[in-house]
Amino acid sequence: MAMWQGAMDNRGFQRGSFSSFQNSSSDEDLMDIPATAMDFSMRDDVPPLDREVGEDKSYNGGGIGSSNRIMDFLEEPIPGVGTYDDFNTIDWVREKSRDRDRHREITNKSKESTWALIHSVSDAFSGWLLMLLIGLLSGSLAGLIDISAHWMTDLKEGICTGGFWFNHEHCCWNSEHVTFEERDKCPEWNSWSQLIISTDEGAFAYIVNYFMYVLWALLFAFLAVSLVKVFAPYACGSGIPEIKTILSGFIIRGYLGKWTLVIKTITLVLAVSSGLSLGKEGPLVHVACCCGNILCHCFNKYRKNEAKRREVLSAAAAAGVSVAFGAPIGGVLFSLEEVSYYFPLKTLWRSFFAALVAAFTLRSINPFGNSRLVLFYVEFHTPWHLFELVPFILLGIFGGLWGALFIRTNIAWCRKRKTTQLGKYPVIEVLVVTAITAILAFPNEYTRMSTSELISELFNDCGLLDSSKLCDYENRFNTSKGGELPDRPAGVGVYSAMWQLALTLILKIVITIFTFGMKIPSGLFIPSMAVGAIAGRLLGVGMEQLAYYHQEWTVFNSWCSQGADCITPGLYAMVGAAACLGGVTRMTVSLVVIMFELTGGLEYIVPLMAAAMTSKWVADALGREGIYDAHIRLNGYPFLEAKEEFAHKTLAMDVMKPRRNDPLLTVLTQDSMTVEDVETIISETTYSGFPVVVSRESQRLVGFVLRRDLIISIENARKKQDGVVSTSIIYFTEHSPPLPPYTPPTLKLRNILDLSPFTVTDLTPMEIVVDIFRKLGLRQCLVTHNGRLLGIITKKDVLKHIAQMANQDPDSILFN
Fold it and tell me: Mind telling me which residues the site (Mediates proton transfer from the outer aqueous phase to the interior of the protein) is annotated on?
């Protein structure tokens, strides 16, 4: 089968000669039919087809008609036919069929010549080469983002006089005047007060540093939101809800384009550096998918087939998580569990390869200078005990409650943003939230530091030489066996840190609600993990002190002896981080694997599993949707969730259009309509496709034709053949209809007709129809009764019906 020109290259074909085509109709409005009264008492003995296809003829068409005046312009591919308009859903069945035909043709030709064999081998290898390129580009961009964000975050507090391109840590690495206890202080690093007023002491110096911190934060946020607004509006947010929708078959032109990639990369650095409560991990998935989409254009196999391209995007999403967390296996599982709609075994292998290459590339760049892929990598050595499952489950309950609370409040705020004047002033909103965040963050060292550094500090297992306030314990021992420190009483620094962390927790919980969803790149992974890590560290320190002061208690004396290292507060922080992230996203398997890859400890999988499952159960009890599904519904994307069961006893006839007493279904006949008739129907309707029937009287179904293919084919015929006029007959049969002499040439369009559209009877239960739409990725399904066409069910009709059954607003299923 000939392959059509790739969808991404055909913006020009949106400019048809018909106004309705210029308006770029959505196939989700496919048959908002001005519908018809249905006569369900129609006779069963419908007369046979007017013209049966000859037994010795090919049913798929493409043959030459008997009349020498027949114009069949589809012997050669017409650019644009078989492609899709913006905000349309792809036809998964047709795309997979076209790829099988292409593969069959290449395989057959490979037996004919050496050159064809080489072409066959290169075609098979192209997928792996594409994965290699995606991994290299994603890893390189992630390294660039990490290094730039680290430097710009430190720029808010000062600058390195030994080289302005060094961040604080790198600046002091080569200094000869730094001590181990104060390794973050060196003469080469100057705060803004030292540069401006030559001193770092006193109230005025504090005010200068405070002012510069807020000023830099506002500047970075202003640049980020301005670049997004002017150059790439699609670069805002995390991108994961939209990527889920795109992977389900929806087309959003430009969302994964070159400008989006460039602006998202730049503004992600600016947004993270501004100190807002957001992360770069979610947007890195969007960046990786942009890389995958752009590189697809180098390979015809993927450029010209939307279904194959979505397999590549699934692998790119895995590479994005791989570089975000340094977790290649977790990335593959994230793509499978959270974002992918269609995930065949071949995609699993290629996703693994892309994630591996991306992680290796980032490791080679070594952005943090510690040979790790993430800033908060940590290793624990103390085993956990069975009793600790109780506080771990408590952290899971907290994570579920936080997740449900966050989703409800964030969605309410985002809905307010969409429905009020607030949404018209994205720059002001970003600047106000940034100013509030910066003003409240600077006085507290735990909110002033970047969120990744905060998580690293909370995960840290205190050693004897740690200078952090969280490790300010009273050392009441002489020796330390095996390098492990026993549980110790908390010092002044620990109590001070607890109060500061409690305030940090409150700020993070509140400010993240208003930050996620603003018109800047904003991920949710890191803020959610920070909330959980703070709660976990607070609980961990509490358990540690309880075990130290009350070792005689029954729950402790069986396993925690005097002078032993019983409780690891950093482990509680890690479990809390997993619980809160699971509560917000509802991830389970991939979340546990990502956290396991972060810590490198197999023995902590059980605590992580207990917390992740508890948080999911608690959050699901309070609301079924994760944050990404909630944003998909808020934006009205046509996404059919595969995880939800449809348990209602409705039938196809209850959902199809037209309903009883509605106008008749708009159809085309197979051989009796003129070009003018078809153009009139196209100009007067906005449907994205039309059923083709034998005749209006019989309503016997022949096939289904897409609006876009009709328009392009008719326009192409008018340009290339002088004989085609408005009175030319259009026919979809194998042979030309008998015509009187001196009639204008006919136009054969059988090759754009889908001869095997999916059909169900009017009495088919809707649970089966919903299952068909989910598993086959259909755009529409025709409804028949005894072989006669009754109506049509589109994907949007299914979504509206599901919303109606769930007592939600069915009109919210629109692309907003």
Answer: 281
Handedness of CA 778, 783, 784, 785 (dihedral sign): positive
Tell me the per-residue pLDDT of 202-232, one tens digit each, with 9 for 90 and over: 889 899 999 999 999 999 999 999 999 999 9
Domain count for the chain, please give it.
3
pLDDT tens readout for residues 295-340: 999 998 898 889 999 999 999 999 999 999 888 999 999 999 888 8
Cα angle vertex 378, ends 548, 355, to 5°?
150
CA distance 518 to 433: 9
Q: What is the pLDDT of residues 380-401, one digit of tens each?
A: 777 788 888 999 999 999 999 9
146 is in an annotated binding site: no
Are residues 548 and 585 located together in one domain of the fold? yes
- State which residues form the domain around 719: 652-806
Whether 797 has a binding-site annotation, put simply, is yes
Residue 643 domain-assigned (yes or no):
no
On whether 796 is known to bind a ligand per the annotation, the reply is yes
What length is written for the chain? 816
Centre a 10 Å sphere on the Cβ of residue 727 and count the other Cβ atoms it contains: 11
- For the segment 669-689, what is each residue's pLDDT rounded down to a tens digit? 888 888 889 999 998 888 888
- To the nearest 10°, the Cα dihedral for 665, 667, 673, 676? 80
Q: How far apart are CA 209 and CA 582, in angstroms?
A: 37
Strands 747-748 and 759-761 come out as unpaired
Are 622 and 681 in the same domain?
Answer: no
Element (H, E) at 719: helix 707-720
Was 688 annotated as part of a binding site?
Answer: yes
